[in-house]
Specification:
Number of strands: 21
CATH topology of one domain: Pdz3 Domain
Shape: globular
CATH architecture of one domain: Roll
Helix content: 10-25%
Largest sheet: 6 strands, antiparallel, barrel
Structural class: alpha+beta
Number of helices: 8
Radius of gyration: 37 Å
Length: 413
Amino acid sequence: MPEYKKLLAMVIVIAIVVSSAFGASAGFLVMNSAQAQKVLAQIFSLPQPADPAPDTKTIQVQEDSAVIDAVKKVNPAVVNVVVTKDLPKIEQFYSPFGDSGNDFFSQFFGNDFMVPGQRQNGTEKQEIGGGSGFIISNDGLVVTNKHVVLDEQAEYTVLMNDEKKYDAKVLARDSAHDLAILKIDAQNLPTVELGDSDSIQVGQSAIAIGNALGEFRNTVSVGVISGLARTVTAGGGNFAEDLTNLIQTDASINPGNSGGPLLNIAGQVIGVNTAVAQGAQGIGFAIPINELKQSIDSVKQNGKIVRPWLGVRYVMLNETIAKQNNLSVSQGALIVRGDTRTDLAVVPGSPADKAGLVENDIILAVDGKTLDDKNNNLADIVAAHKPGDEVTLKIWHKGDIKEAKVKLEEYGQ
């Protein structure tokens, strides 16, 4: 080795030792051991040492999420309800007469000289709609919306989360709520846990699961309870119904979500998703599960919904309706006719008829509970009773106030 290189190497080593002892403030070059090895390797033409491996640590993130746990708990019991129906199969034909269906001439003249037409060629089963649902018993009872299974001529299939399919029979359609209960022939099924919708509060977390847009099965959306005791008019196609005391949520509810569960953070069902506000963002509605428990229990015990029946057709009054009809009373249930001659105000032979109620009477209160169009709807108060219960009605009749005792009967389905 040349003498100058040895001398230089000694200087560098001395510099490293001194800098370690006195620090950079003394004006010396500060190197770590790896840097010193590189310098010495360059001076003495030695192989360069490999760079040390970076000081890395593997970090494992575990997300202990209540939402994830709730979804895992409920997802196997959420189903897709498919609606099918035999519909005419239409085919196109060409004919010089347009509607005769005679294809003989097209063999000679071609379709360019023919008039197109359509004709029925039998029928075929087609999917016409669908919704969501959830299993409430391990032997195959499924809750969904009434408007999902409204067509009595259609056929219904329940598609499970594991792709299994079952034919479904509609056991009951709830006349007081947008609720229906189906039955499939299966055993040992996963089920949901019903919660307490009376205890929910605005601002608490909410989880919706359902068949979004009829295409994306078991879609999960998360939000909060954004309102309580809402009243809306929901409808579509041949269905329209006034729904009261609804839960409002900003968890996304899309077409196809109807009938699916609304959950609390513990994975309990607190509502049945039923409607979305058109033209709005983040406003959906669900029926409180507590309002449906009586109907659910009735189907479990009797195979049908057994509920009390009064037998009147009515509209809940407010100040606007009272002014329009020049009424002196602005609250209560006004007994009125429907749109057709058969839609009588009081059903003949009904409990209301036997108690002497007539068209244009106004039911002001039931057992001392005043009726109004927001919180105390007549149907909800009657539904809280059982067939055979006797109730006292306070009635406005042609300007006079009177009382009538009515024995509720079982509603025939």
